[in-house]
Amino acid sequence: MKVVQGNLVAQGERYAIVVSRFNELICGKLAEGAKDALARHGVKMNEFDVYWVPGAWELPLTVKELALSGRYDAVIALGAVIRGDTPHFEYVSAEMSKGLASVGLDQRVPVAFGVLTTENLEQALLRAGSKAGNKGAEAALAALEMVSLLRQIRENKE
Asked: Which residues bind (2S)-2-hydroxy-3-oxobutyl phosphate (predicted)?
């Protein structure tokens, strides 16, 4: 039996972080968490770039363009969609999630999902660096691990 898993040690890969400006109070904390997690695991400042987009709706298109560019080994998508009084929440969160998932599958580039979909601002704050951790940091770690795992899979074609 062979067991293959990714690790959390950077080896010169390049990462893109795409952050929604909408709900910037939350998203800024997610971005800081992602940058900190990358740095703590050996990713140098010149090995990642940060792109700001207007809102969560714009994440999939931007992530796709970055994946297609060939410049990045993984893309980290960060945002916050907070439920309001209208069905807008359902439309944005569902289509944005599907869009991000399809980019990773179609382009064979890891797309880490660090988009909060919460009922209220309090829940979002808890997930952006409070009691529930920082989901931006968690997404960055997932990106690191997936890059490592995919490298092993692609290099070990028996």
From this structure: 85-86, 127
Q: Quote the domain boundaries for residue 93.
A: 22-148
**Which residues, 6 or more positions from 29, have their beta carbon under 8 angstroms from its beta carbon?**
128, 129, 134, 136
| Residue set of the binding site for 5-amino-6-(D-ribitylamino)uracil | 22, 56-58, 80-82, 113
In a domain, 26, yes or no: yes
- Domain membership of residue 62 (yes or no) is yes
Provide the CATH number for the domain around residue 115: 3.40.50.960
Number of domains in the chain: 1
Residue 88 annotated in active site = yes
Helices of type H across 1-158: 24-40, 59-69, 88-107, 121-127, 135-155
Q: What is the pLDDT of residues 55-95, one digit of tens each?
A: 999 999 999 999 999 999 999 999 999 998 888 899 999 99
Q: Which of 88, 105, 133, 152 is catalytic?
A: 88
